[in-house]
């Protein structure tokens, strides 16, 4: 049961990585240092002073950059693969007591996959906002994404099963809306 709970926490934090790459890493570092989160063997470095300082600095820079219109779109090109890597890392750092092959397979598929899906959704939303408002509404999106990342990170530590259900429902809704908008193509005989 502990392994499933760790995986759920990792998946929730991975989803938060899709909103902001470094906010969940900072939360993991702080939670590890305060004793609220046990990291898997080999990932104790995430709770070190150096990691905490690095994650805090990166978080501040990332947050600030997303408030600059058009720089935020450029940052998305770097943040997209970084979110997948961060989601994979966060999930792997929490899952223990299983074979390394299974651990990393789950981390890549569940953690990296969820982070990539959430990040992809934010990229599409930001692109639409930039095209529709010339980037003027992007700071509003940046605030919502920051709030989403912080809320998802903290809720993942408190109630991970709720986060996974919410993220699953939102991704289902986004996929359903996407497929509803696609025009029907005539079938060629």
Lay out the secondary structure.
Layout: H1 2-19, H2 22-34, H3 49-65, H4 71-94, H5 100-133, H6 138-158, H7 160-181
Helix pairs in contact: 1-2, 1-4, 1-5, 1-6, 1-7, 2-3, 2-6, 4-5, 6-7
Can you put this structure into words, describing what you see?
The chain has one domain (2-180). It contains 7 helices and no strands. The protein has helices spanning 2-19, 22-34, 49-65, 71-94, 100-133, 138-158, 160-181.
**Tally of strands:** 0
Q: What is the H-and-E element order?
A: HHHHHHH
Termini gap? 53 Å
Helix segment tally = 7
Instruction: State the share of residues found in helices, binned by percent.
Output: over 70%
Task: Please mark out the parts with pLDDT under 50 across 5 or more consecutive residues, or reply none.
Answer: none
What best-fitting shape do the alpha-carbon axes yield?
Answer: globular
Question: Helix/strand/pairing class, anyone?
Answer: mainly alpha
Major sheet? none
Rounded to the nearest angstrom, the radius of gyration is: 17 Å
Fraction of residues in β-strands: under 5%
Q: What does the average pLDDT come to?
A: 91
Query: Structurally, how many domains make up the residues?
Result: 1
In short:
The chain has seven helices and no strands. It is mainly α and 189 residues long. The protein has one domain (2-180).
For the structure shown, list the relevant keywords:
189 residues, globular, 0% strand, mainly alpha
